[in-house]
Amino acid sequence: MGSGSSKKKSKATISTVKAAQAFKHPDKTSGKKKGKANVLISFHSKNYQKAQEAGSIIRDNGYNVFLISEGSPFALGLREQSVQWCDVFVIIATFNYQRSHYCVELANYAKDKKKPVVSLLAQPNYSPSGSVGAISLAWGKPIHHVQNSQESNDQLLVALTEKLTGVERSTVSMPTLDTVEGSGLKTEKTQGSYVCIVYLEEGVEVAKMVKSGHGVSNMGAAANTLNQVPIKMGDPKGSNIELIKGCKVFIPILTSGYQDSSKCREEYECARKHEKQIIPVKGEKFWPSGWLSLGIAGKLYYELTDSNQAYTPHKNVPDSTPMNDFIFAVLTAYEGELSEEEREKADIAALTKKIEEVKGKLDEWPPKPRNQEEQRSTPPPPEKLVTQDTENLPFNYIKYEVTRMSFNPPKPLFDKHGIPIEQKFDIMLSYQWDIQDFVRNVYMEMDMKTFKTWMDIWGGMQGNINEAMATAVENSTLMISFLTEKYQKSVNCNLELMYAKQKQMPIIFINVEPNLQLKDWIQELVDKTVVFNMSSISDFGEMDKGVPKINRLAEAARNLMKWSAAQPKKIRTDVSEEVYRLQNLLEDALIALAEKEKRKRYETCTRCGAQFENESSAGCKVHGAYYMGGTILAGRWVCCSQREKDGMGCEKANHITISRKWTEMSHKGCFQWNPK
């Protein structure tokens, strides 16, 4: 069962594989278990035919193949077994796959189990985003496979051979099907009205603690509690199925006994089937396995084993505890989440409305297709990222003592409906948790210098861990990567950095450990950008040609931000074919309207160089104060210590098209742009 045989079989050969002598045949992996390799093809039911075609090609070339959709098999145990069974995980990457929780969950679990991944981009003009984008494009080997061509089939077989080199064959038995192969997900979404906490007797004390939990008050504000929402407690011995059907948020207290209980598994699957918001709580120290490990794959769970652990503040963060984070997550989940159909419908409605508005202003319809989109330029080389030194004047470093109460924590990535917030962070901090104290200090310095920075603490991380990470990459202008040996060895850290590379994101590196031998692919990235050697707060004020290192870092970041602002705009490619079509139609119409009105499609900001529309002029940055120095002290902007006179500003502003003039102010030695 699960063979995925197809009536249409392509006569694919492994000609390309044979030509690539560097690759070994999967049945001849030196020193490993011999025999056929197992290939799991994960797809959305709407792309079943594509999965069948790929399965036939792969099977005809000597592999075992199993097909898994979002609804077949359905049982968590069988789905988990399928990932354990496979030697390589193949994703049929489409918009439908990306929007399906069950598909995304499986891809996350394959990544967590360090399964080699090959991704077939099977939708025209499509590039996945979020966790599927990160896993497909960065962790996996992406192949454009819209049409079943000889070239794309050969690329698939080469990728499989390459990914399987050195991989030990799985000894797990092939899973079976409990529903018809290729089936869609038959969910029964029910509207809920309360929070449901379920547990076994071994988790009763944790369940009580969770129900009565309270956050930490902040600057006189009342602490968050779950008293704001209705809560119903489950029966540790009897069935909770009907209780779960009526809930809005499902909180299972995970224990080793919970994992071994068929009652608990049925209840967990019920919550999934009825599309409940699930927030797992680990009620004891154990490592989930089997069906439960898939059930929480990628999810941000909360370890609340006892009151001491739940209420101990995070290090150096007195107003944030694990319980505080948990309560925030529950209250956010209680707001609800839009379904994939609702999101798609909203996108189409908004685009259609805008198209109709422009259509009424044009003489001809449809508009002629525009030329190919302008490509991004290459980020500036290292020597261009550092502000040039023209003055040999002192530049004093001031160390600010910053507390959690006096600066803004990272903004959340998702709104109350679970949709990524369309916002632009200046900087994303990528690091391994062992150096979090140091990274937090960099965050604080960047905050004092008015950068909008994202870090995975204080509510910055929500829901699916991989989804949050990928969304942070997609919504940040640049990344600061903190290099350590553990960073190099971390699967999640590597995924962050690889995805940033795939998305052509500018990166600045901070080398935290001296004499670090970097992986070749990381070294290639390091060689193209600027690197700062810092490992403690004391390094911030260390002078680099008279300028504190932390200021050098800030200058490099602002220079990259200004480069990024001037890059051409692009339409989204992580959408359905219909949304992509409407986006293109709208852009063609807007270009035609601009030509009719004898103006440019976009205005160019005279401050930052960005392209913008008159009706949407937000997104620029202006200096909040004035520029001083250059005679006794090194010249700099008072507001953010930047030395570049025409550098990127530090406060939000609208774009402008007016010419600006550098003007000396009434108090001599101080300057500003006029207009700002």
Task: Explain this structure.
The chain contains 23 helices and 26 strands. The chain has 676 residues and is α/β, with parallel strands linked by helices. The chain has 4 domains: 36-164, Rossmann fold; 194-335, 3-Layer(aba) Sandwich (Rossmann fold); 382-566, Toll/interleukin-1 receptor homology (TIR) domain (Rossmann fold), CATH 3.40.50.10140; 602-675, no CATH class. α18 (465-474) runs parallel beside α20 (491-502). The longest helix is centred in the middle third of the chain and has 20 residues, at 340-359. The radius of gyration is 27 Å and the shape is globular. The relative contact order is 0.09. Residues 1-34, 360-388 are annotated as: Disordered. Residues 427-518 form the TIR domain.
Class by alpha and beta content: alpha/beta
Low-confidence stretches: 1-32, 400-407, 413-422
Radius of gyration from the CA trace? 27 Å
CATH superfamily of the largest domain: Toll/interleukin-1 receptor homology (TIR) domain
Instruction: Give average pLDDT, whole number.
Output: 86
Termini, distance in Å?
69 Å
Instruction: Note the overall shape.
Output: globular
Give the count of structural domains.
Answer: 4
The CATH top-level class label of the largest domain = Alpha Beta
Named CATH architecture of the largest domain: 3-Layer(aba) Sandwich
- How many helices in DSSP terms? 23
